[in-house]
């Protein structure tokens, strides 16, 4: 059976992405996950793409469309995670391929994402997928 790529829209579909998303975001808690995703969808335009194989979520991409002065309309990937138990099976490449299709359909000129400097395996994957490092992302916490 071929893996399925669908947008998670219902409460059950969103909730089914939690265990995979938590592998990248361990600070997330199950009780607040659905409400947080719903709030981001409603107020920030977040979209959640789930890749399922044999009825089990194996990969998740959270993304949104933005307009920036320097590059125009872009698809920004907040999170892209494949279940650590099934990595290197092409799921990540399938998610990115679908994100490219979504970006083109939505009139985007590029895809952008941020990856922490410590995620060397992810960087190798992104390089293989044709991504390049173009800038530094600076961060300063408030409060």
UniProtKB/TrEMBL annotation:
Domain N-acetyltransferase: 8-143
Gene3D superfamilies in the cross-refs: 3.40.630.30
Transferase among keywords: yes
Name of the protein described by the UniProt record: GNAT family N-acetyltransferase
UniProt entry keywords in alphabetical sequence: Acyltransferase, Transferase
Family matches, as InterPro entries: Acyl_CoA_acyltransferase, Bact_Acetyltransf, GNAT_dom
């Amino acid at each position: 059976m071929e893996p399925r790529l669908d947008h998670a829209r219902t409460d059950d579909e969103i909730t089914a992405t939690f265990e995979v998303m938590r592998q990248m975001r361990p600070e997330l808690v199950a009780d607040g996950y659905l409400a947080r995703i719903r709030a981001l969808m409603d107020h920030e335009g977040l979209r959640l793409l789930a890749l399922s194989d044999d009825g089990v979520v194996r990969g998740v991409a959270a993304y949104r469309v933005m307009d920036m002065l320097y590059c125009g309309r872009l698809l920004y990937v907040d999170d892209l995670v494949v279940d650590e138990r099934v990595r290197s099976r092409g799921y990540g490449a399938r998610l990115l391929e679908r994100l490219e299709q979504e970006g083109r359909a939505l009139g985007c000129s590029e895809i952008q994402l941020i990856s922490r400097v410590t995620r060397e395996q992810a960087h190798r994957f992104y390089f293989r997928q044709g991504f390049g490092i173009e800038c530094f992302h600076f961060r300063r916490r408030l409060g």
